[in-house]
Specification:
Helices cover about 25% and strands about 25% of the residues. By secondary structure, the protein is of the alpha/beta class. A hairpin with a 2-residue loop joins strand 1 and strand 2. It is globular and about 55 Å long. The N and C termini lie close together (about 10 Å). The N terminus and C terminus are likely disordered. The structure holds adenosine-5'-triphosphate.
Length: about 300
C-alpha cells in the first residue's frame, strides 16, 4: 500500500467531538504533521490530531505500532522526528504540570515497603512548584485522592502486597495528584479482571466528566471502554486512522490500514477484529515526495 492509498490520515485538524462541543474550547494537545521513527523504521507519520478537554481518545494498534512511544512524546520524554506539537499550549517537557500519567502496569516488587499513601504523596510533591505543602495539607490531599479511587482501606499497606487491581487504583490516584488536564494511560487494564477493569474505567471516566480532563487511553482491547470512547486513533504499519469507533473499527478501514483483509465484526455489542497481523512489520520509507512510501 503506498501513501496515495493510505487510509485518510486526518489531513486537516479534526473538529471537537461532541464532548467538547463548546466552540471556545482549545485543544489540550495538538499535533501537526507529527512523526516518530527509530532509525529508518517509521512508527507513525503525518499525524494531525487535536485532543479536546473531556475527550476520551483510545489509542489502539498491534504490538510495536508506537502507542507507548506516542505517550512518551506527549510527556516530553521522546522527541518527535518531525512535525509540531503542543501540550497545554507549550512544547511538551518532562515533568510538565497538569499532565497525569498512568504507566504500563508492572507489578511492584513484593518487597516494596512504600505504602500506597507514599506513592500518592510522591505524585503530589513531584509536580509541585513553589512553596512545599504543609504536612497537614499534604496528608489531607493524599487522603482525598486515595478516597476518590476507593483505596482508603489499604492506604497504609506496602504497595508490593497489593493486588494488581489495587495497585492500579493507587497509580491512578498518583496520576490525579497533579490535578491533570490531560491524563495519559498506558494499558491500565492489562491483567485486570472484569470487575477491576470496570472500576478503573469508571474512575478515569469520572475524572474526565467532572473535571473535563482529556483522556488518552492506550489499550489493546477496545471493548472494555467502547461505551466511553469519543474517538479512536488506530496505529498500524506506519499509518494511522482517526475517528469515532464506528468509522475506524470497520472491515474496510482496518483492512486498508493493515494492507491486508481484516474482518471487523460486532457480536452482542462487542467488536471483534479477526485476521489482523499481530506485530508490525518493519517499515522502511523509500524517501518519496511525501516522506516515504511503503515497501
Ligand atoms: N528508544 C528506542 N529505540 C529504538 N527502538 C525503540 C525505542 N523505543 C521503542 N522502540 C521500538 O519502537 C517500537 C514501538 O514501541 P512502543 O512501545 O511504542 O510500541 P507499542 O505500540 O506501545 O507496543 P506494545 O503494544 O507492545 O506495548 C517497538 O518495536 C520498540 O521496540
Amino acid at each position: 500500500m503506498d501513501r496515495a492509498q493510505a487510509p485518510s490520515p486526518a489531513a486537516a485538524p479534526l473538529s471537537p467531538p461532541a464532548v467538547a462541543a463548546d466552540s471556545t474550547a482549545t485543544p489540550v494537545a495538538s499535533l501537526r504533521g507529527a512523526a516518530l521513527s527509530y532509525g529508518d523504521r517509521v512508527l507513525w507519520q503525518d499525524l494531525d490530531l487535536d485532543v479536546w478537554p473531556g475527550e476520551f481518545l483510545a489509542v489502539l494498534g498491534p504490538n510495536g505500532s508506537g502507542k507507548t512511544s506516542l505517550l512518551r512524546v506527549l510527556l516530553g520524554r521522546q522527541q518527535p522526528t518531525a512535525g509540531a506539537l503542543t501540550v497545554l499550549g507549550h512544547p511538551p517537557r518532562r515533568g510538565g504540570r497538569h499532565i497525569g500519567y498512568v504507566p504500563q502496569q508492572k507489578s511492584l516488587p513484593a518487597h516494596t515497603m512504600l505504602r500506597a499513601r507514599d506513592l500518592v504523596r510522591l505524585g503530589l510533591e513531584g509536580h509541585r512548584w513553589g512553596l512545599p505543602l504543609t504536612p497537614g495539607t499534604a496528608r489531607r490531599r493524599v487522603d482525598e485522592l486515595l478516597e476518590s479511587v476507593g483505596a482508603t482501606s489499604y492506604a497504609d499497606v506496602p504497595v508490593g502486597r497489593l493486588s494488581g487491581g489495587e495497585q492500579q487504583r493507587v497509580r491512578i490516584a498518583q496520576a490525579l495528584a497533579t490535578d491533570p488536564r490531560i491524563l495519559l494511560c498506558d494499558e491500565p487494564l492489562l491483567s485486570l479482571d472484569l470487575q477491576h477493569q470496570r472500576t478503573v474505567t469508571a474512575l478515569v471516566d469520572r475524572r474526565r466528566r467532572t473535571a473535563s480532563t482529556a483522556v488518552v487511553f492506550v489499550t489493546h482491547e477496545i471493548n472494555p471502554v467502547l461505551g466511553l470512547v469519543d474517538r479512536v486513533l488506530y496505529l498500524a504499519r506506519g499509518g494511522h486512522r482517526i475517528g469515532p469507533p464506528d468509522e475506524v473499527m470497520t472491515t474496510s478501514a482496518l483492512s486498508r490500514l493493515y494492507g491486508t483483509h481484516v474482518d471487523v465484526v460486532r457480536v452482542h455489542g462487542r467488536i471483534v477484529v479477526v485476521g489482523a497481523p499481530d506485530a508490525v512489520p518493519v517499515h522502511h520509507p523509500t524517501g518519496g515526495p511525501n516522506g516515504g512510501g511503503r515497501p
